[in-house]
Amino acid sequence: MAKTAAALHILVKEEKQAHDLLAQLEKGASFQQLAKKHSTCPSGRNGGDLGEFRQGQMVPAFDKAVFTCPLLKPFGPVKTAFGYHIIKVLYRS
C-alpha cells in the first residue's frame, strides 16, 4: 500500500527568497498568504495547496522531504529542477 500525504508548498526561483519566506513563516506569517503572493507554481493561487498525493508521484527530492520532514512545520528550502520549495505537510498516512 503506497503512503499518501497532503501538503502546501511555496515555489520560488532563488534560494535567498526561500530562506526569507521561511523566516517570515517562523515569525507567524500565513503560509497560504505567502504562497498566493510569491509562489511561481500554479498551486500558489490556492495557497500552495497540492492536495493529497501518493509517495513517488512528486520529484524525488520533494517526495523525500514530504515523507520525512516534521508535520505542520514549514520545511525547506528543498531544491528541485523547478526551483526552491518551502513545504508544509498537513498529514501523512
From TrEMBL:
<dbReference type="InterPro" id="IPR046357">
    <property type="entry name" value="PPIase_dom_sf"/>
</dbReference>
<dbReference type="GO" id="GO:0003755">
    <property type="term" value="F:peptidyl-prolyl cis-trans isomerase activity"/>
</dbReference>
<dbReference type="InterPro" id="IPR052204">
    <property type="entry name" value="PpiC/parvulin_rotamase"/>
</dbReference>
<dbReference type="InterPro" id="IPR000297">
    <property type="entry name" value="PPIase_PpiC"/>
</dbReference>
<dbReference type="Pfam" id="PF13616">
    <property type="entry name" value="Rotamase_3"/>
</dbReference>
<keyword id="KW-0413">Isomerase</keyword>
<keyword id="KW-0697">Rotamase</keyword>
<feature type="domain" description="PpiC">
    <location>
        <begin position="2"/>
        <end position="91"/>
    </location>
</feature>
<keyword id="KW-0963">Cytoplasm</keyword>
<protein>
    <recommendedName>
        <fullName>Peptidyl-prolyl cis-trans isomerase C</fullName>
        <ecNumber>5.2.1.8</ecNumber>
    </recommendedName>
</protein>
<dbReference type="GO" id="GO:0005737">
    <property type="term" value="C:cytoplasm"/>
</dbReference>
<comment type="function">
    <text>PPIases accelerate the folding of proteins. It prefers amino acid residues with hydrophobic side chains like leucine and phenylalanine in the P1 position of the peptides substrates.</text>
</comment>
<comment type="similarity">
    <text>Belongs to the PpiC/parvulin rotamase family.</text>
</comment>
